[in-house]
Every structure is written in structure tokens, then in C-alpha cells.
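Hi there, hope your week has been kind to you so far. Thanks so much in advance, here it is:
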Amino acid sequence: MKPSDFLSGHLRDFIEYLSVEKGLAQNSLLAYESDLKKYASFLSAHDVKHVQDISRNQITQFLFYEKQRKQEASSIARALVAIKLFHRFLLKEGVVKEDVTSVLDSPKLWKNLPSFLTLREVEAMLRVPNVRNPMGIRDRAILELLYATGMRVSELVGLKVEDLNLDSGFLKCRGKGGKERIVPIGRDAKQAVERYLSHGRRSNGRKGNLFTGLKRDECLTRQAVWQMVRRYARQTRIRKKISPHTFRHSFATHLLEGGADLRVVQELLGHADILTTQIYTHITRDRLKSVYEQFHPRA
């Protein structure tokens, strides 16, 4: 028996369910499948031969095993989400009589708060691109949009010119699973994009990919945006690990610090579950505590 044979049929059914009924994107399906194959291999290696024999303790052991393998906290949390959804599916299909994951939660030990930039650091990053040349104009527009909208990098590179409505100050964004949402564009980001369309975009016309590569009509890749952000981060000498996603974290954190409603931030980020958005409330609480301890005379 191969390590995952006793679960292989159920895994195939689950992935098909996520694809057909839930409409998950291919990258998400591959991530779920990868996590669950590791899970199945672990169970088989520990002499679990039937899905009905899986216990909460074994799931916890698997998560600690992943931690001992030096897996990132976010990867472990993602694996737990996959496991919980899988066992919920098994209960729904009548394969098991109990969902053994129903009382499991991701231990606080594994919850890393996302890194974010201060407003001063954001402004420092935005000043780096040289807007006297087309590439700098493009890069400034990219950074402005990342911070102004909280978009994922995959959403940014997928933007089309026709997704923009600069007159109204909105853009149409396609998120995970192809779900669309409308996101407002701030004044500075709008000006940066207008300048890019007039003086920095290599492609002619008002259709096609908004951001292109070095060659005319060449689609800009996620990797290129990552490399660009890291290059500018090095120039600012900010001692943080900065990626395009850092701008998304900064967007959410700064909105909540300014008093924005959590549900509004959830909608702007395109989170299906508000629990995903709630992690940013921990950041703002920690920051408030830090400011209090720094400035209150009797803290």
C-alpha cells in the first residue's frame, strides 16, 4: 500500500468537489491537494488504515510534525484549513459519522502576524522609482495601486485597461476563484496610473493588460513585480522583509488603525471569511499597546 492509498479515492472526490461545486482556482486546488497528500502519508506512516480511525490527536501530531520540519506558520495554518474542509466534506458525504476537526483551531503558537509598513516606510518606498523614465513611471503606478487597493499581486498583473474607471475612481478586480469585486482608487494612485497611461505604458490603445513588461504587449509576471518590490526595498534600507503582499497587509492595517469597519476591510480585501480579516485587529491592538507603553507616563 502506498502511503496515501487509503485516502486517495476520497482525496480525488474532494478536489473534484472544490473544483466543480466551489469553483476554486487551479493554484488553490493544487495547494489543497499537496497539503492533504502530506497528511495522508503521515497517517499511513502511523498505521492508520481507515478514514474512520483518524483521531484529533493524530491530526495534532501531524501539525506538530510539520512544525518540527521547520514549516512556516502560514503553511501549517493552511494545512489545517485543508484538513478541516476535507473532514467536513467526509461528514457531508456520509463517509464518517463525526467531524473530528470540529473543535480544532490553529494554536496561537503558529499564528504569525503579517508584517506591514508604517506610513513613513510606505512613502519612502513610493519615492524610490525614477519617474523621469517610463519604467519608473510604471513602477510608481504599481506601488501606488498595491497600497491604495490592497490587491494581491496576482490580481494586479491580471488587470486590464478596461477594468479601470478613473473618472469614478474605481477598478474591477478579479480575485480567487474568479470572483470580481469593485475597489476604490485613491487620489495619488489615480494620478500615478493616469501618468503611466499617458507617458509610461509601452502598449498603445485602451485595451489589454494594464501593466506590461519590457517589451510591447508583454504580460507583466508576478515574479517581475516581486523582484521590483524587493529591489526598491533594498534601496530604502528598510530592515523588514518586504514583498508585494506587505503592501496588502499595510493597506488593511492602516485602514483599521484609521477606524475603518472590519466588514468593509473584508470586502475590500476580497476575503470570503471575516476570520481571515480579523488577524489585522491583532496588529492594531499590538500597535496601540506599543504606543501606549511608549508615551503614557504611567504605562
Observations:
- The longest helix spans residues 26-45.
- The first strand starts at residue 164 and ends at 165.
- DSSP finds 13 helices and three strands in the chain.
- The two ends are 61 Å apart (CA to CA).
